[in-house]
Write a structure and sequence with these properties.
It is a single chain. The protein is 36% helix and 35% strand. With 157 residues, the protein is an alpha+beta fold. The protein has two domains: 88 residues, ATP Synthase, domain 1, CATH 2.60.15; 43 residues. A hairpin with a 6-residue loop joins strand 2 and strand 3. Helix 2 runs antiparallel to helix 3. Its main location: mitochondrion. This is ATP synthase F(1) complex subunit delta, mitochondrial.
């Protein structure tokens, strides 16, 4: 009997908490890197991000989330339907209860600005550095550089 009573109490509390959340119909995006601010509290329709727990899309009223970005493409769909893609090397994404989103990248560039042949040369350079690395530290640094360069080539193609 006490289990049923506790379950009802928890259900009532959960319903009351969900009614108190202040979700917004608009999603404001702030997307910045050390080299540039791409969006500053701009209202957008959708954001797709690559994270180490899997790639996911964000819409208004998304559940609050914190994730670590992995090297890949952040895609922003504006309210008018315009889609812009950016390569990010790493960083974080935060989704707040008020539907505001912050994407903070270590480095980010518009996909249109990436030269695929230069990206391939970079990948080749880091692969050779990884194969010739003598210490564990040098191997780990080269492996990270290879991962980023592979994602850069994939994004540019």
């Amino acid at each position: 009997m006490s289990f049923v009573r506790n379950a009802r109490l928890l259900a009532k509390r959960g319903a009351r908490l969900s009614l108190n959340r202040s979700y917004s119909d608009d999603m404001k995006l702030t997307f910045a890197a050390a080299n540039k601010t791409f969006f500053d509290a701009a209202v957008v329709r959708q954001i797709d991000v690559p994270s180490f727990s899997g790639s996911f899309g964000i819409l208004a009223k998304h559940v609050p989330t914190l994730a670590v970005l992995k090297p890949g493409v952040v895609q922003v769909t504006e309210n008018d339907g315009k889609v812009t893609k950016y390569f990010v090397s790493s960083g974080s994404v935060t989704v707040n209860e008020d539907s505001s989103v912050q994407v903070l990248a270590e480095e980010a560039h518009n996909i249109e600005d990436i030269d695929v042949s230069e990206a391939r040369q970079l990948l080749s350079k880091y692969q050779s550095e990884m194969s010739s690395a003598a210490s564990d530290k040098a191997k780990a640094e080269a492996a990270i550089a290879v991962e980023v360069a592979e994602a850069l080539v994939k994004a540019a193609e």
